[in-house]
Amino acid sequence: MSHPRDVLLGAQARTGSLPVCDHYSGVEARMRKSLQLQAEMAQEFGTCVFDVTLDCEDGAPVGLEAQHARLVAQLALQAAPGARVAARVHPVDHPAFANDVATIAGEAGHRLCHVMVPKVESVDDVLQAERALDRASTARVPLHVLIESPAAVRQAFEIAAHPRVQSLSFGLMDFVSAHGGAIPARGMTSAGQFAHPLVVRAKLEIAAACHAHGKVPSHCVVTEFTDTAAMQDAASRAANELGYTRMWSIHPAQIRPILQAFAPLQEDIENASKIIAAAADADWAPISFDGTLHDRASYRFYWQVLERAHSTGRALPAAVQRWFAEPAAFS
Question: Which domain-ending residue is among 213, 243, 262?
Fold first, then answer.
């Protein structure tokens, strides 16, 4: 029997799905702890539920960028089998960019799930990053890009259309700062970022650009990392109101609230399971379920509910478990 992913998503399925949480750390001790936590939670949930992105842009001490890049490469190589490890390099116009890519992708490209490029302003920046990656490694490492200015937001659709780009992230702090005080400081808070029209507009443009081209929109940070309620609320609003399917974490305490906010409700998982199982039994022809007609358009929606449930570590009903029967990460 054909796999639902191939039947319903087609070419889009080849891009794969991403964990809903992307966790950033740049200090050596925290990078090591993040990789250990990733392994522990993969055992707990039976799948890798968040990426670990090792950070050069904010993590490298000034003047020691080359040493930090070597450390990131070493940590990626030392990560457990099945670990999803990425690296954020410096912007393409930074003096350390070329060495970051040459060192990290050159030594550990085959272990990277993606490379994050910050402060991308246009497709030209994407092309420059792609050329640097191709010079450094034969591995086709996906690019994730960080949109951080009004000009970059305007280019979001063109950037998302590039085939090497897998995900777009929104850089809240730099975006607000780029407005020269026109957006108040509250626009950088967990609540204010959902209230200011310019910030909300930018988030919506990025999400729309991603969905137009089958890419993953990744929501920005919440800096009040000790406020679990604020984190939970922001993650829920990003997922339910703005169309984001992934979010940044900058503290281990933020990971579980993100997983919870982006996970489907159990009743939705049960309903999706019944519909997909019935559709498979009908060889994906239209069916009537509880008096409602379903076809491949709705099947696609319900299959993606199940994929999101699996990626957030939720238990799946027996009727669909066969399609997710893969070895757990770090096993």
Answer: 262
Q: In this structure, are 244 and 173 located in the same domain?
A: yes
Mean pLDDT of 83-100: 98
Provide the residue type at 1 as one letter.
M
* Spatial contact of 188 and 152, defined as CB atoms under 8 Å apart: no
Strands (E) in the chain, as ranges, are 21-25, 50-55, 85-88, 112-117, 143-147, 165-170, 216-219, 246-249, 287-289, 292-294
Same domain, 75 and 223: yes
User: Is residue 268 located within the same domain as residue 306?
Assistant: yes
Sign of CA dihedral 34, 139, 141, 128: positive
Q: Report, as an integer, the average pLDDT of 178-198.
A: 95
- Mean pLDDT is lowest, of 30-34, 191-195, 205-209, 310-314, for 310-314
Q: Identify which of 20, 94, 99, 84 has the alpha carbon closest to the alpha carbon of residue 53.
A: 84
Q: What pLDDT, on the 0 to 100 scale, is given for residue 15?
A: 47
- Residue 53, beta-bridge partner list: 24, 86
Shared domain for 176 and 206, answered yes or no, is: yes
Q: Which residue, among 152, 157, 240, 149, has the nearest Cα to 194 in the 3D structure?
A: 240
Q: Residue 11: is its pLDDT beyond 70?
A: no
Q: What is the CATH number of the domain that holds 107?
A: 3.20.20.60
Q: Crossing angle of helices 97-108/65-78, nearest 10°?
A: 20
**Whole-prediction pTM value?**
0.90
